[in-house]
Amino acid sequence: MLATRRFKSLPFAPLIRRNSTAAEPPPAGGHSPTIATSQLLRTTKERALRTPGLVWNDDEPSNAIVSVGRECRKMNVYQSVRDALSIALTKNDNAAVFGEDIAFGGVFRCTMGLAEEFGRERVFNTPLTEQGIAGFAIGMALMGHTPIAEIQFADYIYPAFDQLVNEAAKIRYRSGGQFNVGGLTIRTPTMSVGHGGLYHSQSPEGFFMGASGLKIVIPRSPIQTKGLLLSAIRDPNPVIFMEPKILYRSAIEQVPIDDFELPLGRAETLVAGADLTLLTWGTPVYHCETALHMLADPPPALAPHVPESLRKAKVELIDLRTILPWDAEAIAESVSRTGRLVIVHEAGMTAGVGAEIAAEVQKRCFLRLAAPVKRVTGWDTPVALQFEKFYIPDGLRILDSIVETLSY
Amino acid sequence: MFRPLASTHRLPLARQVHLGHLPHTRSPLVPTLSFFNSVTGSDEKIPTFRVLDGVGKPVDGAQLPEIDEAFARKLYENMQLLPTLDTVLYNVQRQGKTSFHMTSYGEEATIIGSAAALELDDEVLGQYREMGVLLWRGFGVDSVFAQCFGNQDDTSGKGRQMPVHFGSPAHHFQTISSPLATQIPQAAGVGYALRRSPDRRSRSIAACYFGEGAASEGDFHAGLLLASTIPSPTLFIARNNGFAISTPSTEQYYGDGIASRGPGYGIDTVRVDGNDVLAVLSAVREARRRTLEQGRAVLVEAMTYRVGHHSTSDDSFAYRQRSEVEDRKRIDNPIARFRLFLEAQGWWNAADEEELKTRLKADVMKAFKHAESLAKPELGELFTDVYAGEEPWNITEQRKELTGLLKKYGETWEPWRTELARFKNKGQDLTKA
């Protein structure tokens, strides 16, 4: 399993790295997009098939870049998770999907019908024990199998912290490279939905940031979810795959039905720009898009706070996608051009992922920086239910930080 | 006579020939290889204690708990209050007025019966489906609604937590946490602290509730191990309602329920019919007595059935037959069962029933209307209670940052203005401070 990781994408790696999605410029009309109307979502087959970095993983040897004639289907994120899992289970007899409440489809419907299709030996409910699920999955992976385990909410991953940080992350190193759990993938729903309170809103990716040996991936859309999840499953390292749960139903794209992968460890430029780098991942990608619209064409209430001179500013929006190991090269390259960096994440500020990025960027880009690196994050408090609208960074807070950083 | 070399042991262990004992333990040495897989010493499952049959009639040989009419009526009224509240809170969530609810349908006897067996100042650590314990202790429907609405009267957590995450020091009820089973080892610590408190040690225990699903978490095993070994006067009450969200108990464990694990930790254990409120009352009273007397953990497994969905986020008919649920409601309704008993005692009649239902409904609707009319807590509460004592600089700065943003945009940016209007003092506790 681990040896079958395909490297046919390698010849195109430079393409992947430089390719910018460069979405159409914001409509002049100035409406603020929601997730449902986001320009970043590839809602036509043509745009879906032009997804940067997409590598087909065909059964028959083929030209992996030929996209002509490929079929797409309209999917939301939970459907694309299911699609990826179905492909993984079909192509790899050693793949298994399990977790709490998986068999009836999972609490977010990501595993609907898989138990019926692939049988209860490969798709099964576990008792309610996150440390057990992670340990069990590690055991399977040690035997070269491909466990795809679900932790029902990222807020509940902490009982598995020991298994993931002390075991999964370190097994290759401690065994001198003799053993590994490269087949391991942990899927878990993450981030806020607006009414989850302390324990259904967390973004714990930062807690795993120091666990070298693990990879952390957070997709923003159905196409990204499918391609990155299939890469995660086939990556020769254990991967924690965090799915922003508000996007399960709300983010909809045309998704290619064939097997394809998107590269781990590579950020994606969603909007090209030269004046400021706006870096984020997961749900806030859409809040950032809103902020860009408000910057270019502020509604009357905000116009007094957005100087005319800044409205034409070209902001480069980047989706980090892989949180660990993160694409420092791409971010530093962008910030070297723009001189300004705003990082947006839902987790609290202190020791959030933004802290690590800010430190590395100031090292790499110190003389190029025209403003301090700004972080727009949740506050350093738990996520309080009735206060969530003022806890989670929204488009306005992002806009304010962009204006502040541009005017520094 | 031929005997297989290895057999699964069917005889009580004590009847084997033995050759003395292992040093340091009392394990007898025996010449026969035999495996065992039962805590009853037979093929029989652990029995379930019951005193009332399905129609509320005392079973043969039943030892009814000592209760008088007033106490019995109080039990019944609280059992009826639970579904009255649940129905309104469920519908209120459906109307989008609150974000969440979890009902206790079907578990009224387990929750109220056990609550009634505890002393009012026994320290309770619940999972999330134990609103009835607070009701029994006089928490009040206003406090219930205030928490579920997260309004300025929410004494449980200042609007910070999801609905049904109650807590009240005055009612000796620790605040509910969503992560499962975390309360179980904590309960061992609470019990130990009670034993070390001169004014509590002879009269108070810790009582810990959890479901059969939560009992799969590592914290369950840690908690029972600690409370038995250290030891700590902690009463563990497992609500075995058959489902952990969609997962039936048949997929949750392979052994004989939760009760079979008690003897593994060396603790007194009993299984009780959780839909028989008098059996629950008796079992928990006796379990409590033993907990206090031994200063050590005791385990009660109450067998019940979750008639409702797991929560408002769940549709249980995706994984169980509607008819199964309807059958359970009809055949084994804990409230109806107890009512029949009360009627047979001459302690209850149709007029009482009518009066109670009308009164409870009126109380609940009044509390709902009141809660609905109240604003959220002050916005500044977002930043309080993270730390006690000196506030760290980052919290102070972040409060300042939000305050600055509110001053800048709070009166003109419609989404923020609308949201601010929902808070007590509309955010002015920050902007005008």
Automatic annotation (TrEMBL), chain A:
Region of interest: Disordered: 18-37
InterPro entries for this protein: THDP-binding (IPR029061), Transketo_C/PFOR_II (IPR009014), Transketolase-like_Pyr-bd (IPR005475), Transketolase_C (IPR033248)
Location of the Transketolase-like pyrimidine-binding domain: 75-250
Key word Transferase present: no
PANTHER family assigned: 2-OXOISOVALERATE DEHYDROGENASE SUBUNIT BETA, MITOCHONDRIAL, 2-OXOISOVALERATE DEHYDROGENASE SUBUNIT BETA-RELATED
Cofactor dependency: thiamine diphosphate
Class of this enzyme: oxidoreductase
Oxidoreductase listed as a keyword: yes
Its EC number(s): 1.2.4.4
Gene Ontology process terms (BP): branched-chain amino acid catabolic process; generation of precursor metabolites and energy; response to nutrient
Alphabetized CDD domains for the sequence: TPP_PYR_E1-PDHc-beta_like (cd07036)
Gene3D superfamilies associated with the record: 3.40.50.920, 3.40.50.970
Catalysed reaction, written as an equation: N(6)-[(R)-lipoyl]-L-lysyl-[protein] + 3-methyl-2-oxobutanoate + H(+) = N(6)-[(R)-S(8)-2-methylpropanoyldihydrolipoyl]-L-lysyl-[protein] + CO2
Protein name, as recorded: 3-methyl-2-oxobutanoate dehydrogenase (2-methylpropanoyl-transferring)
Keywords linked to the UniProt accession: Oxidoreductase
Gene Ontology molecular function, alphabetical: branched-chain 2-oxo acid dehydrogenase activity
Superkingdom field: Eukaryota
UniProtKB/TrEMBL annotation, chain B:
Keyword Oxidoreductase: yes
EC top class named in words: oxidoreductase
Signal peptide residues on this chain, from the entry's feature table: none
Catalytic activity: N(6)-[(R)-lipoyl]-L-lysyl-[protein] + 3-methyl-2-oxobutanoate + H(+) = N(6)-[(R)-S(8)-2-methylpropanoyldihydrolipoyl]-L-lysyl-[protein] + CO2
Transferase among keywords: no
CDD domains, per the entry: TPP_E1_PDC_ADC_BCADC
Keywords: Oxidoreductase, Thiamine pyrophosphate
Cofactors (names): thiamine diphosphate
Domain Dehydrogenase E1 component: 78-377
Biological process, per Gene Ontology: branched-chain amino acid catabolic process
GO function term, MF aspect, one: branched-chain 2-oxo acid dehydrogenase activity
Enzyme Commission number, as recorded: 1.2.4.4
Pfam families the record matches: E1_dh (PF00676)
Role played: The branched-chain alpha-keto dehydrogenase complex catalyzes the overall conversion of alpha-keto acids to acyl-CoA and CO(2). It contains multiple copies of three enzymatic components: branched-chain alpha-keto acid decarboxylase (E1), lipoamide acyltransferase (E2) and lipoamide dehydrogenase (E3).
Family recorded in the similarity comment: Belongs to the BCKDHA family.
Identification of the protein by name: 2-oxoisovalerate dehydrogenase subunit alpha
Organism for this UniProt entry: Mycena metata
Biological classification of the source: Eukaryota, Fungi, Dikarya, Basidiomycota, Agaricomycotina
